[in-house]
Write a structure and sequence with these properties.
25% of the residues lie in helices and 41% in strands. The chain has helices spanning 2-28, 33-49, 171-185, 277-286, 300-315, 374-383, 388-399; strands spanning 55-60, 67-74, 79-84, 95-100, 102-105, 109-112, 138-144, 149-153, 159-164, 192-198, 201-207, 211-216, 220-228, 232-235, 241-243, 246-248, 250-253, 259-262, 269-273, 290-293, 317-318, 321-333, 336-345, 348-361, 364-372, 401-407, 417-422, 425-434.
């Protein structure tokens, strides 16, 4: 009798426990999967609509691609407006495009653009090679909130971060800020070297086409792709530069535009210049580079002298024909710095060289006339109605003197354009760009 009672009592306790567990499971899974998925999709939908000025989009097609900036405004009526300014999808010009958009509930929330959008679909079109840029126009939502979203391409795995665009920012101004950042550091600066400083230790790195890279030894190469932002740069998702056991992903210019500083919490990293402007000017000349005179960026006195020289040559007609100067460049020739005068004799392209005595001391460059070859001498004669000494004087008023050497981009990080300013007269200024 006692054994029977104990058995029944045990069975009652087990039954009660089972009932209790079933009730807990019913509480946890009270909604069926389709309802939970719909709730998730609804939350994403409301967040997409919650950015009144649209979303700032940082679009990487894959780890090997550069990043591209876009703005997307999702509207409640099912339309979306997309804007971009890049070489891949808009030909380098600011462009807006409208299309339909929808949010699909399918093993998660999927953002889709079911009708053609010239900005978005340009990344996904197969083109002649059947592949194209390898981007996407449908995106799986991986992380979401009203402050940030991470989405990935459904087909090719494009990685995208999205942030609400500040309400007061005009869309074209957003891309203008990106252009300004590019100008401060990257425009014209391919094959430039920088110092990457991590926890106080410097390492030389190379830049080309929106990527940084370096090689260790004979076998190990590191390549890091990034996107330009209105503040600085941001590296490919989860692929920032290693700093100890962390990864530095986001960088912004400091107050004087002399360095890009990591803004990620607890990470000490920055990019700074490897060459001074004077060092880079000299480096390019010694490695078969050339610096082209930027006629639009000359100081007032230099501009007047330059225009007079060019126009005088063009107006003089010799027995051999008419000469028209097309540009002037600094170049190393036969071991010496020379001014290369490119011109056309009638329709034939020609070059003349004027050798200069050149000395760089610190951040100053001193130039003085030495000699002219036959073709350059003909230009000197033409500039002063056959008076070669007067022609030399005109040339010297452009190029002779002692000049300070400084970056002309607004940042020491970008020395692809350089200002040479007479130390005694700021109206005598030469602006030179890296010749292509």
């Amino acid at each position: 009798m006692k054994r029977t009672t104990k058995y029944l009592f045990s069975m009652l306790l087990l039954g009660a426990a089972l009932v209790s567990c079933n009730r807990m499971e019913e509480d946890v899974f009270s909604e069926n999967p389709s309802v939970r998925l719909q709730s998730y999709t609804n939350a994403v939908y409301e967040e997409l609509l919650s950015a009144p000025n649209g979303w700032e989009v940082r679009y990487f097609m894959n780890p090997e691609s550069a990043g591209y900036a876009m703005i997307i405004k999702f509207n409640e009526d099912g339309t979306a407006k997309v804007a971009a300014k890049n070489s891949a999808s808009t030909g380098g010009k600011y462009q807006e495009a409208e299309s339909l958009w929808e949010l699909i509930s399918e093993s998660g929330a999927i953002i889709s653009f079911p009708t053609y959008n010239a900005v978005i679909h340009a990344f996904a079109e197969p083109r002649n090679d059947g592949i194209g840029l390898g981007g996407d126009y449908e995106f799986v939502v991986k992380e979401h909130s009203a402050q940030q979203m991470r989405i990935t391409g459904r087909k090719h795995g494009a990685q995208i971060y999205m942030y609400p665009l500040p309400s007061g920012m005009a869309w074209e101004d957003y891309f203008a800020k990106i252009d300004a950042i590019d100008a401060l550091m990257f425009t014209g600066n391919d094959d430039m070297s920088f110092n990457l400083v991590r926890n106080g230790e410097k390492q030389k790195v190379e830049y080309a086409k929106h990527m940084f890279g370096w090689v260790v030894g004979d076998t190990v190469s590191y390549v890091y792709r990034f996107i330009t932002t209105p503040q600085g740069i941001s590296f490919y998702y989860q692929n920032g530069v290693e700093v100890g056991d962390k990864r530095a992903q986001n960088f912004a210019f400091n107050s004087d535009n002399s360095a890009l500083i990591c803004t990620d919490e607890g990470i000490d990293a920055r990019f700074e210049s490897y060459y001074s402007a004077a060092e880079y000017f000299d480096f390019k000349l010694k490695h078969k580079g050339a610096w082209k005179v930027n006629a639009a960026g000359l100081g007032s006195e230099t501009k007047a002298a330059y225009d007079d020289f060019v126009q005088s040559v063009a107006s003089f007609v010799a027995s051999s024909g008419k000469r028209t100067i097309t540009d002037m460049r600094f170049r190393l020739k036969d071991g010496s710095v020379a001014v290369e005068l490119n011109f056309r004799l009638n329709d034939s392209p020609q070059q003349g060289f004027i050798t200069m005595d050149s000395k760089i001391e610190g951040d100053q460059l001193t130039l003085s006339y030495v000699s002219a070859d036959t073709k350059a001498n003909a230009l000197l004669l033409a500039s002063a109605n056959k008076d070669v000494e007067a022609g030399k004087a005109k040339f010297k008023s452009i190029f002779e003197g002692t000049f300070s050497i400084a970056s002309g981009s607004g940042s020491v990080l970008n020395a692809s354009t350089i200002d040479l300013v007479d130390i005694n007269n700021p109206n005598r200024k030469l602006k030179v760009d890296i010749a292509k």
